[in-house]
Specification:
The chain is mostly helical. Helices cover 82% and strands 0% of the residues.
């Protein structure tokens, strides 16, 4: 497979950024760059997507036509607040990196060493907290018959096919002139 198309496909289908980089590197340096770029674009757009989903959900899916109008406070309540932290930290670190004379060294020191260990522990605690909140008794009836497994396999298969089609259209048809080596 062409490294550009393969990298775009990997970047669009694999969830974890590190796994995207590793898989892209297997196809070569060019595929690694494309895969990482596509994944970064996805990561950047998660905030916009979350905001749009929050608005759609409260205005169309759960709206009661006979009830009161949905206010901005309900959208704020439903909006995943981690997105704001993600965006604000991205802006802060970008500004520090580019504006300070020792910006790159400062950022590398902040994301390495002891803070790396702390980030690992906080990440583990966050996922343990999610697990502690899970009610398995309530979830168990939903797992009978293997329906969630079938849904997962169908969803992932559709994701893989649609991502390949979109990567082909974007990198081989629409922007073919821009990405030819």
């Amino acid at each position: 497979m062409d490294p550009i198309l393969g990298g775009a496909w990997l970047g669009g289908t694999i969830d974890a950024t590190g796994a995207v980089a590793a898989a892209g590197a297997v196809l070569g340096d060019e595929a690694l760059e494309v895969a990482a770029t596509v994944k970064m674009i996805q990561n950047i757009l998660i905030g916009v997507t979350a905001f749009c989903v929050a608005i759609y959900w409260v205005t169309f899916v759960e709206r009661d036509p006979a009830g009161p109008k949905i206010g901005i406070s309900e959208i704020w309540y439903r909006f995943p607040k981690f997105v704001l932290g993600f965006v604000s930290m991205s802006i802060l670190f970008s500004v520090l990196y580019s504006s300070l004379s020792g910006g790159p060294e400062l950022i590398n020191a902040m994301i390495g060493g002891s803070t790396k260990t702390l980030r690992g522990w906080f990440f583990c605690l966050a996922f343990v907290s999610i697990g502690l909140e899970t009610n398995f008794r309530q979830l168990l009836p939903q797992l009978k018959g293997g329906k969630p497994l079938v849904l997962y396999v169908c969803g992932q298969s559709l994701n893989i096919i649609l991502t390949l089609v979109m990567a082909y259209l974007m990198f081989k048809v629409v922007f073919a002139d821009a990405v030819t080596p």
